[in-house]
Structure formats: structure tokens, C-alpha cells
Design a protein that fits this description.
Elements: H1 3-9, H2 15-21, E1 33-35, E2 56-58, E3 79-81, E4 102-104, E5 125-127, E6 148-150, E7 171-173, E8 194-196, E9 216-218, E10 235-237, E11 249-250, E12 253-254
Parallel strand pairs: 1-2, 2-3, 3-4, 4-5, 5-6, 6-7, 7-8, 8-9, 9-10
Antiparallel strand pairs: 11-12
């Protein structure tokens, strides 16, 4: 189907036209994965919900703002990608998919998350970056198996103290928020391995040397006057990271030390090979 014809059909909301956009996908694929990313969908074709053994469903980069209640039939679904759509609220039907372990919600228009999210007790990876969150919803702190949380590029100013209860959490991405202080709750999370607070407004960093699990801290692009102290072997990315934890001075001026390299942030589009097995 030509792209021009797809663009025209995409504006017709009938089930028949939306089904036409997915072409000849009539039966569930053998690999139990459906990837409809970038298909210009405005609604999910209902016949997809009949693929009851489906494990992975990618709906990234479409024009979706709701999902049909029939999605509840996909009780074997483990990976659901809804990023780069037009969701202003998370459809509650998503919270009925209790086998989900990876959920991508980034680049939507979410201002909150429903309390029903707590039903997803198998969730290990949650991406909520690039939304409209002014606070981290406390319901996230009830996802006890969560290992990776990407909440960058929102408007977060602080983190809830309940976050410390997520003892499986290993990686937290908070870049591009409005943090003016280093979140105190992270100091009580010795199991964290990666902390990213790049591109915030943090002026002072407390010592992180007491965090035994820490492997990497990214603190670049903050108006800080010191580097966080870390234990031996922990990599720091930011000003003065290759020297002492304090800025090196010369004739009263602070000399910034250039970085030779910088770890890449989490990709906006998830390659299949990078998906963490459930």
C-alpha cells in the first residue's frame, strides 16, 4: 500500500479502514509478536485482540488516544509499547494485562497514572519519559518488581519517599526534569546501579560513596559547584568527573574538564535485541 493512500485511510476511523492499514495481518504470527509501529493508526483494529496468545505488541508512533476494552483478551501479553502516541490518560484496560513486564508510555501527554497501575505486579520496566508529569505518581512505588524506571523529560521537582520500597530498582533515569536538589530518597536506595540526573537544576551533590551497588552516575548539565563523591570504581559523567570530586581551580577560575565520551541515553526506539526478557 502506498504511503499516500495510507495517509488518507488513516483519517477514516472505521474498523474496516483501520484494519486496512495493517494490510494482511489476519492471523497471529508464529513468533507471537505484532509490530504496528508507524502505521498511522487512529484506533487498534479489533481483530488484533483475538490473538490471545500474543506476547509482544508494539504500537509506537501512531495516532492512538484510546484502546478498545477487547484488549483485555490479551492476557499473555508481556511487552506493550504505546510510546509516541496521543494518550492524555492511560487506558484502564492496560492495567488488566497482569502478565505485562515491560510497558513503554513515553512521548505522550500523560499528566498522571491511574491507581489501577498497581495491578501490574509483574512489571519490571516502565518508560514514562517525555510526558507532562509534574510529580512521580506514588502508584509507581507499588510496582515491587520494577527494575528500570525512565522518567526523564518531564517536570518533576521531587520524588516520593515511598520510592525507597522498590528494592528491585536498579536503574533510574531522571534527566531533563526540574530537580533543584538531589532527590534525598535516592540516598536510601543502596541497591541502585545507575542514577541519571543530567539536565536538571541541582546546585549541590551529596556524597554517594555509601551506595554499594552504584556503578554509574550521570550528573552533567547541572549548575553544580561540586561533583558527587563516589566509591572506587564508580563511573561519573559530568564536570570534574575525571579529577577529584571538587573543581580544579587556576588563578581563581574554575577550569571545566572536557569529557572524552559520554554514555548514550536510553534509545527512543527500542530495538528488539535490547528488550529485557521477562
Amino acid at each position: 500500500m502506498g504511503n499516500s493512500l495510507k495517509a488518507v485511510v488513516a483519517f477514516v476511523p472505521s474498523n474496516e479502514c483501520q484494519k486496512y492499514l495493517v494490510e494482511d495481518l489476519e492471523e497471529m504470527p508464529v513468533d507471537k509478536m505484532v509490530d504496528l509501529s508507524g502505521s498511522q493508526l487512529r484506533r487498534l483494529p479489533l481483530h488484533i485482540c483475538s490473538f490471545r496468545e500474543l506476547v509482544k505488541l508494539y504500537l509506537s508512533d501512531n495516532n492512538l488516544n484510546h484502546l478498545p476494552p477487547e484488549l483485555e483478551q490479551l492476557q499473555n501479553l508481556q511487552i506493550l509499547a504505546l510510546d509516541f502516541n496521543n494518550f492524555k490518560a492511560l487506558p484502564l484496560v492496560v492495567c488488566t494485562l497482569k502478565q505485562l513486564c515491560i510497558l513503554y508510555l513515553g512521548n505522550n501527554k500523560l499528566c498522571s497514572l491511574p491507581l489501577e497501575l498497581r495491578l501490574l505486579q509483574n512489571l519490571k520496566t516502565l518508560w514514562i519519559e517525555s510526558n507532562c508529569l509534574q510529580y512521580l505518581p506514588e502508584v509507581v512505588c507499588e510496582l515491587t518488581l520494577l527494575k528500570t524506571l525512565h522518567a526523564g523529560s518531564n517536570a518533576l521537582r521531587t520524588l516520593p519517599t515511598q520510592l525507597r520500597y522498590l528494592q528491585e530498582l536498579r536503574t533510574i533515569w531522571l534527566s531533563g526534569n526540574l530537580l533543584s536538589e538531589f532527590p534525598a530518597v535516592l540516598l536510601d536506595m543502596p541497591f541502585l546501579e545507575v542514577i541519571d540526573v543530567d539536565r536538571n537544576s541541582i546546585r549541590f551533590f551529596p556524597s554517594l560513596a555509601h551506595l554499594p551497588g552504584l556503578k554509574l552516575v550521570i550528573y552533567d548539565h547541572n549548575p553544580c559547584r561540586n561533583a558527587p563523591k563516589v566509591a572506587k570504581g564508580v563511573r561519573r559523567v559530568g564536570r570534574w568527573s575525571e579529577e577529584t570530586p571538587e573543581p580544579r581551580k587556576r588563578s581563581g577560575a574554575v577550569v571545566e574538564i572536557p569529557l572524552d565520551e559520554r554514555p548514550s541515553p536510553p534509545p527512543a526506539i527500542k530495538p528488539e535485541l535490547e528488550v529485557e526478557p521477562c
